[in-house]
Write a structure and sequence with these properties.
single chain, about 220 residues, alpha/beta, seven-stranded mixed beta sheet, 7 helices
Length: about 220
């Protein structure tokens, strides 16, 4: 087996460091012993964008994507959106963007330079709190789900207060889409209690329909 090579380490505000590894042509972003992202598994992150856009009813939406990751969600969104759409990417860890422009530039495929894209190096929670009625969709993939694995501060996004802020940041008919590595019945109830119309969808990790089963929640602002 080809050995795994450590490329770089990134500090996470309020959390443990992330490490970028490469094995052959594949990249992995790792937290402690948890592999958060792998360049071979993109299906559910792409579905996050595609299925969100399918639920929108406006011609040129403004999307807020929380967490660039490896850019799977952003690239999938750009393929589906027209030229007048806007995508704001909120990324808390600057090195994630550096990796996208550096060792993973081929994987990024120029998506960060698309004229529809604005990258903001900030906490997505802060952007949501200040985005009153400014977004048609908010897509959150900043952690492994509502458990705040990467950074305990992310827990606030999934609290009743955080969900209320997300609802206020959306236009009527807007979509809050949340990716998770696993189901969470308590969170699904909380999302309904926050006055969203909720749909829970299971998706496979790989684009070929194989791999672990992940979950995406869609909350529609009524």
């Amino acid at each position: 087996m080809v050995p795994r090579e450590l490329i770089d380490t990134a500090e996470v505000p309020g959390g443990d460091p992330l490490r970028l590894f490469r094995r052959g042509n594949d990249f992995m972003i790792v937290l402690d012993r948890n592999e958060l992202m792998n360049s071979r598994m993109s299906g559910s992150e792409e579905a996050l964008a595609e299925m969100t856009i399918d639920r929108l009813r406006v011609p040129a939406p403004h999307l807020l994507i929380g967490g660039y990751g490896m850019g799977f969600t952003l690239r999938a969104a750009l393929k589906r959106l027209d030229g007048d759409a806007r995508v704001t990417v909120s990324e808390l860890v600057p090195k994630i963007i550096d990796w996208a422009r550096g060792p993973m530039a081929e994987l990024a495929a120029g998506c960060l330079d698309d004229r529809r894209v604005e990258v903001v190096l900030d906490d997505v929670g802060a952007m949501i709190r200040h985005g009153r009625g400014g977004y048609d969709a908010i897509l959150l993939d900043v952690d492994n789900g509502p458990d705040g694995l990467t950074r305990p501060g992310n827990d606030g996004l999934y609290s009743m207060r955080g969900l209320a802020a997300a609802r206020a940041a959306l236009r009527t008919g807007g979509v809050l889409a949340i990716w998770s590595a696993a189901p969470d019945a308590a969170f699904a109830r909380r999302l309904r209690d926050a006055d969203f119309a909720v749909e829970e969808v299971g998706v496979k990790a790989r684009s070929n329909g194989k791999g672990p089963r992940h979950v995406i929640w869609f909350g529609i602002k009524r």
